[in-house]
Structure formats: structure tokens, C-alpha cells
User: What shape does this take?
Amino acid sequence: MMAMMRGWAKTLVWIAILLLCAGVGAFIAYRFPANPFPPGVRDAAVRPSESPSPSDPELSRWHLKMISQTTHTYRVGGSCTSDWRLGGQIRLIQSGRIRGRGVARLLLGARCDFPSAQVQTERVIVRIVGRRVGDEIALRFLEVGRRPLGSQDLGGFLKTLATLRFSLPERAGAQATDRKRIEEPEGETYVSRTRIRLRS
Assistant: This one.
């Protein structure tokens, strides 16, 4: 029978057959959905870091504020000063470790007492790490990025940030202050006064 049909008629019959098959397939998929990730198979799009490990649950979470005033005195003469404000969040987990992140922003008034063509860093991404020691938490800070890309921290904030160590009671309102003075053999000097505070 198909051999006796004209070309256009055969085409219409095949289109009708294909549409019928597609309709049956859609009906089966709608009525009997299949799980593409059966038990024992992980979805690759779900990363382990997206949810805390049930074996090491979070004990507490704190907001952290930091104010830092820094001065960088250059060996060739002259100095730059800057003030920074950091806001972040830290988490204490059952193992006693502390993890967190924050963003430090340059405040208005940063200046150098000499002309400079270098681009001043305006924002710093900071990783916060530490652990609980008795009734206190010990914290330190690591730079993980800066903006604008390729910019320079003229006032010395990042130089002293890497050396800061804080220990303070684990309670809302707890605060601590650290003063740093770094004198390098090449004649560069960095001075900072930094205060942090916890809030719930």
C-alpha cells in the first residue's frame, strides 16, 4: 500500500506516525516521571560545601566589625595614611574551628604627602580563620582578593592585617584592640591601630 502512495502522501503519513509517538512518549513521561539520580548516585551540581557537614555542626555565628587606621612610611621619605572598615561573619563549628569571610572598604580621607601615579586599593576580600580556646576565640585574617585589580595598598593596611592576632570572649559586644609596628630592613615602616567587635 505504501508503495502505491504518492510522495507527498507518504510524507504526511510519516509525520503523523512521528507525532503520535512523541505524544505517547510525553504522556508516559508525565504520568511516570523517573528520578535521574536514583539512590546512591550524587548530583554533580550539588557541592559538599553548600551545606554544613552533619558530623561537624555549627555551634554559633557572629557578625564581626573592624576599624583599622594605618600609616606606611617609605624609605625614600614621605608617608601614606588610610582608614579601613571591615564587616564580616564568622562561624564556630563543633570541632572548635572558626571560619568566615569579610569585605574591608577604604574610607574617605586616605592620602599621601607626595604625588603618586599608583592606583589605591579600595576594597579587600578577607578570609577569617581561628579557633576557640577555652571561653575565648582567637582570630586571624588573610587577604584573598582586592579591587581594583592590580591596585596597591599605599597606606599599609594589608601589610599589618596579615600579622594581626585577636583573642576575645565569645559574646556579643566583646571587643579587642591591637597595635602593630613593622620596621623592615629596607627602611619601610608600617603602623596600625585596629579594633574589632563581635555582635550577634
Notes: The chain has two domains: 2-31, 57-199. The beta strands are 58-73, 79-93, 97-106, 111-112, 123-133, 136-147, 166-169, 175-183, 189-199.
